[in-house]
Amino acid sequence: MGEVQEQLQQDSAMEVAAGTTQPTEQDYLWPAIRFDLPPRRTHHFYKQFRNGPNPKNFLKGVKWSPDGSCFLTSSEDNTLRVFSLPDNGGSSDSSACSLDSDGDSYEASLVVTEGESVYDFCWYPYMTASDPVSCVFASTTRDHPIHLWDACSGVLRCTYRAYDAVDEITAAFSIAFNSAGTKMFAGYNKSIRVFDVHRPGREFEQYSTLQGNKEGQTGIISTIAFCPTHSGMLATGSYSQTAAIFREDNMELLYVLHGQEGGITHVQFSKDGNYLYTGARKDPYILCWDMRKTVEVVYKLYRSSEQTNQRILFDIEPFGRHLGTGGQDGLVHIYDLQTGRWISGFQAAADTVNSFSFHPFLPMAASSSGHRRFQVPDEGNENLLLNGDENCASVWSFSCASAMENGGDISGGNFTSQSENDFHHQQ
Predict the structure, then answer these.
(1) What are phi and psi of 94, to 5 degrees?
(2) Is the pTM of this model over 0.90?
(3) Which of 259, 260, 305 is nearest to 284 (CA)?
(4) Where do the segments described as Disordered lie (predicted)?
């Protein structure tokens, strides 16, 4: 553990990695994406999530690594899995994946099993496969401290421990690295604890999300996001159905946003930092807020989520022009963020698509599906639990305008052609 701690203190190595391996604007293919055409499923995984003592295991989220070399999944069996992307990215037409194939596209390159249910997980923001020191991700689980895992070996690098009034470990419900990658922000009940990434252990700064006059944010802080452009500003979501904006340096409360009908489970800033998007459990709308005038909602983006307790994570593509979100109907919806209007949708799974994550620079995305079932289905529906198109992770490849111009073949199944009004419900 001592050697690992020394590695974490090598700031210069991480800064070099962050400054030299990130893709340039010329590397991005997103401006040429054809979101009006269905994507092609290039990789599919479901059997690995059914091995083990829990036959009703389901996925809870998926996130691409910052360098795009792999993606990380979390599932109900308290397991985190890293899937490395093949060298060719699976972008060729010949790599289309069929659900009829018997088995997964390939095995996870790393499997990490936690002792309890995983509340949240996130990548180190400057992670790059070319620098092993930076290849880490963090997780927080029930009754455990925050863990920092080596994404190459699965070794536990270090822990960040918070204690309650009786000196017992209390678990964070949400975690996020700040934009500089130097601090770990963790959400608790009506409070935020801030850890120095390079000083593991039980040292932290604690801030209440309530002000002295009892104004502010109550409840469990369930999600945290940092503004990509306005350095030093972060957003938090709470199960009290509010989102809040704070200053990073002193956690000064700037304003509180009210409007979601359920406990907030996800917040994300637009790429230019001018807008904030919030989503909540059992609330069919993602709300768009203008950070320059937060009095009212700019527009609402619809997704079906009224009947599932599963949190549904959405994502914004790298150029910030489109947002993708799943729903309880197994569909993924793509929205134009300039107008707030629905662009297209496609069937990604037979169950709730609880997470959709765009690749950081390739025209690809990953999805995960499944949700907790509180009632065992009757015998006639028993096969539903064994469907390869349910409780699965998939990688999708989008078509580019350049491919169309070159006569490229555009294939993909279950494209949704319903009218825009079926999906876009704007106030």
Answers:
(1) -70, -10
(2) no
(3) 305
(4) 1-22
